[in-house]
Amino acid sequence: MVDLWHVTFEVFRQKDNQKSHFNFFELDINPDEYVLDGIERIWAFTDRTLVFSHACHHSTCGACGMLVNGVEKLTCITSIRDVTRDGGKIRIEPLRNFPIISDLSVDMSSLYSRMEAVGHQPILPIQEEDSKGKVKSEGDLLRLADCIECGLCISACPIALTTSNYIGPAVLAGAQQHGELTPCILELVNSENGAWRCHSAYECTEVCPSNVDPAWRIMELRRKIIANRFSSFFTRK
Amino acid sequence: MSEYPQQPGKLIKWFDPRHRSLGSWAFILNRVTGLGLTLYLFLHLIMLGQLAKGPDAYDGFIALVKNPVFLVGELLVIAAALIHGLNGIRVGLTSFGIGNSKQKQLFIILMSLAAVAIIYFAFRMFAH
Amino acid sequence: MDKPHVIVIGAGFTGVAVAYDLAKRGMDVTVLERGPIANGTSGRTHGLLHSGARYAVDDQESAIECIDENTILRKIAAQVIEPNGGLFVGIDDSDMNYRDKFIEGCQECHIPLEEYKPEIALRLEPELTKKIRTAILVPDGTFDPLRLALAFAASAKFHGAKFRLFCEVTGFLFDGLGNVTGVKFSDRTKGKMEELSADIVVSATGSWCGEVAEMAGDPNIPIRPTPGVMVTYDQRLCQRVINRLNEPGDGDIIVPQRQMITVGTTSFEADNLDYIPVTEQQVNLMYHRGCELIPSIANTRERGAFMASRPLVDSGLKGRSLARTFKCFDHKVSQNIDGLVTITGGKATTLRLMAEKTVDLVCQKLSFPAACETIETPLISYRQYFSIPNEVN
Amino acid sequence: MHDGFDVKSRMGESAGAWFFKVASGGLIILVLFIHLVINHLIVEGGLLKYADVVKYYQTWIVPFMEVFFLIFVVSHSLIGLRSVLLDLHPSNQVLRWLNRGLVVIGCAAIIYGTWLVFVIVGRG
């Protein structure tokens, strides 16, 4: 039997646009469990009113992104051992830069709609280009894309802090992944709120839990837009 | 449901490096030095107006800026220019797809260079 | 006649599929879910799109359902499916003894298969154990759990269904005779109680359907929640699903997904369904069983471990022998409670079929003549779930 | 704002401005380096006397270099300042005035600086 840790969860609470506050929950918990397990325990045994989002519990759905001690984490794969110590505390807050539905759950509609608009492919050939080079070809096999639309990158981005109009790292990465710059996509990513807003803080890549490397993709996208602009400049007339 | 939380008033958080990684330090430094240098640029242009007034005005002014307070100011400007310029090299390179996976190392190397240069200039200026 | 109003409790796979089918047939639908979409068993699956081969020997009814639905889902939900097939891999004598039964079973259930010699199998999947003696390719696949549910939910919304998330049903509304006429629920985002009446209530609460039926006065749903553990590793070591060619057992399946693989699963019984802890012992078991099939799992990092509770319908047997098929209960028949239908059991792969049968029953009870049309039409993009407005009445 | 789009076209951040910012940044680094070498390594003690400054400006290339430097520095700094202000998401009206204001300030600074250079050259 493993030794249990005594951990205090400081959980952000907000209902129905009322004033927010923190609740403290003390748990004796196996440190190899994940932060999301701790939150689910609180809901199951202590406070049934706690609202939080989750689904797959193995980092393929992207629903459980939260701030753990101030840093964006996918709580289902963040073990308690990695973020606190025995007798320590864990501060849980909802993602930044999204409207709060309640407590720890945020509304990511804008992210999903934008991903749709830039044509991010949820399923793609296994041979796919990423920042570490191409993965070797495997015939006509397909796999699910890396981006799980968890919103961590948008929460971590300093530009998204002040304007909700910036379409955000995930979406720009989605446009890059889509490959083709159709006029609609170009209008979105080459706009004021698109690729030119990035100021190279690399926070997106820092927090991305799923091998997307959004910063690299934004830079690639810029290169593609500039090339596109040059060629359309010379082929016009 | 609440509204989007983003507001211009949150700009203070741009400069909050808590819980953030190295890239944010680059972002913060770039922003602070950029704004500082812009302010300096216009002050500098106005100051250079003394040149138009002839030798006496200008040399008198130079004598004034020789005092330690202005020297510290000048050192700050040199430091800001070095940091902004060297970090700019990183931003420029990565923007063209060079060294994205090594941006942290790049930042550390460039900032070490900046630190060495700043110390060198500080010695030179205060040794006189 | 006005459109009948149907409340669906639960937005797991069954709930969203039922909502989609109801809405597509023209009914007024409200889905009540106590958490976010697919937060229970549905979300926490390894995402295996069954070809049915796993059940072809012991449970042919389920196997046939699976292969039929597998074919349909590949067409209507291609957006969330890795359609790469799966290998049943034989390693030892016991596996090879199972081989003939397995091939025979698959043929009886018209599951297409192709057998490969070890060297060809190793060319397809280089990370497989070198001890491999045979490999049989069947049309397994992988789906993204949340996005499969979202695709159904989006299509349901497209046809007018309303979703109320974070709304936990706390009780039922009755007419004087004990028949269900609606539900009482608490909106957890606001901390407020609400009531909603309906012509019929469908409980699609999976493992929890026993508790829900009890609230309506029927304590006799034969449901046996059977949790299993899954462990995810940080590299995509195979491109196809890898199964052990043997009787269903612990840790006999490896499912690739994105850049990960998930090893599953176990089978036991639990008391509290709202929180079932993962034990180190189970994680170790998955690790060792996984390494038997793909030895290089030993060199990868464990990414996560999780637990899901399958809703198995009790037929008097235990554990893995429980039937994997689903069952639709009309509480009018069992306890003379009208207005409530429970759908439970089954597997993710058969969600559409479960919905079809349930909605057939609902239509029959309401004398609402409409036929199922969910086989042919592809689902709309899962992201539309967020862009179609949800007018709450 | 439910769908999260805002594609009204306005003179916000653009490919051109970004490209110019990076290119001018590179040139500034280059010129600044030359400037530092001349001021601190070639001319001992730096250009601190009025007479030295005037003498320095008599080399034909220097005024040109200084004017180009001025243009790049002023535009780089104002485009940068504008980027920062754009991150605060100004309304269309504010942005319109901002654009005009920055152009006016930039032009004024460049004209003033160029005039200054020629005044000094003329004193030689």
Structure in a nutshell:
The complex is a heterotetramer of chains A (237), B (128), C (393) and D (124). Chain A contains eight helices and eleven strands.
Give an overview of the whole structure:
The complex is a heterotetramer of chains A (237), B (128), C (393) and D (124). By secondary structure, chain B is mostly helical. Chain B has helices at 22-52, 55-65, 68-95, 103-127. In chain B, helix 1 runs antiparallel to helix 2, helix 1 (22-52) packs across helix 3 (68-95) and helix 3 (68-95) packs antiparallel against helix 4. Chain B is extended and about 60 Å long. With 393 residues, chain C is an alpha+beta fold. Chain C has helices spanning 13-24, 60-76, 93-108, 118-124, 145-158, 209-215, 280-293, 331-335, 351-366, 384-387, and strands at residues 5-9, 28-32, 48-49, 81-82, 86-90, 114-116, 134-138, 141-143, 162-164, 167-174, 180-187, 192-197, 200-203, 223-233, 241-244, 253-257, 260-264, 302-313, 326-330, 340-345. The longest helix of chain C has 17 residues, at 60-76. Chain C has two domains: 5-42 and 146-222 and 324-387, FAD/NAD(P)-binding domain (3-Layer(bba) Sandwich), CATH 3.50.50.60; 84-141 and 224-313, D-Amino Acid Oxidase, subunit A, domain 2 (D-Amino Acid Oxidase, Chain A, domain 2, 2-Layer Sandwich). Chain D has a single domain (16-122), classed as 3 helical TM bundles of succinate and fumarate reductases (Up-down Bundle), CATH 1.20.1300. In chain D, helix 1 (15-42) packs across helix 3 (61-86) and helix 3 packs antiparallel against helix 4. Classes of the chains: A alpha+beta (237), B mainly alpha (128), C alpha+beta (393), D mainly alpha (124). Chains in contact: A-B, A-C, A-D, B-D. The interface between A and B is medium-sized, with 35 and 33 residues.
